[in-house]
Amino acid sequence: MESVFKSASEIDPVTQAINDLKKLSSNLKRLDTQPDLNINQIFDKRILAVLLSKLVVVIKKRDKSEFKADSLYNGICAINRYFIEKFKEIGPFNLYGDFEFAPFRDILHSRMRELEEIYNGTYQGADPLSDNEMEQIFGHHELDRDTPRIFLRVFYG
Predict the structure, then answer these.
(1) What pTM, to 2 d.p., does this model score?
(2) pLDDT single digits (tens) 79-105
(3) Which residue range forms the structural domain that includes residue 34?
(4) How far is 109 from 39, CA to CA, in rounded Å?
(5) Of 43, 70, 146, 152, which one's alpha carbon is 20 to 30 angstroms from that of 61?
(6) 64 in the same domain as 53
(7) Cβ pair 63, 119 in contact under 8 A
(8) What residues have CB less than 8 Å from 112, skipping those under 6 apart?
(9) ∠ CA 125-18-118 to the nearest 5 degrees?
(10) Are residues 104 and 118 in the same domain?
């Protein structure tokens, strides 16, 4: 008789965690258990790790489509900068270095891989400059061939 249970080696724990969080979030009907709690009042890194893990799994655009992997990563970098500033007087904080956030990093990495598979690894960034546009930029009167005055103005002006 064939067993219906998978062995531990067949289950990726990070994928399983993502699936569990998705299942949990779909089963909860906007249950507000702590209406007076604000994320700015939370200073326990483990609780923040759980909340950020849930955010990474369930976040979608307004039109209910998925974010691209690089957009998700950039958003998490912004959140990290916010919390670094918030924790400045309390102690060190880093989503990418603190051991309390190791499970969060695993979930983020797996979610980014999942999003890359959805979008086939496509990256929608800025278009490169054409040769004509480059000539216009470097031929501008503010750029001198010997001394780039605009750079001096930006840095020292």
Answers:
(1) 0.55
(2) 888 888 888 888 788 888 878 888 888
(3) 8-125
(4) 23
(5) 43
(6) yes
(7) no
(8) 69, 72, 73
(9) 35
(10) yes
